[in-house]
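ugh ok fine here u go
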Amino acid sequence: QVQVAESGGDLAQAGGSLRLSCLVTGTPFADYAVGWFRQPPGKQRERVAVINWGPANTYYADSVKGRFTISRDNAKNTVYLQMNALKPGDTAMYYCATDRLATNLLNGRAKAWGRGTQVTVSS
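structure:
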């Protein structure tokens, strides 16, 4: 059974940094794409970044390009989301998800989702 667990959410000040981690178990991790999504208060979920099985294949939402970096460590079954230059608009519950196909993640579909980790950015 595929399981996803996020960690690293916290309260940060605008301009600060946080790193989120996503641990995926129960799959041949190296063959799976992983994505980060977020849901701000009162808004719909939006995709933030996706990384395919190859580290060179990444996608970023326009709102985070140049500030967020997604990476993976296949030896640790973990994907990271490094978030720099944080803005109050980045405040949201951040979810990690995984699927064999990156295209599914880009369409908001996934084999498994985590429960989320809260990021709050104060001005």
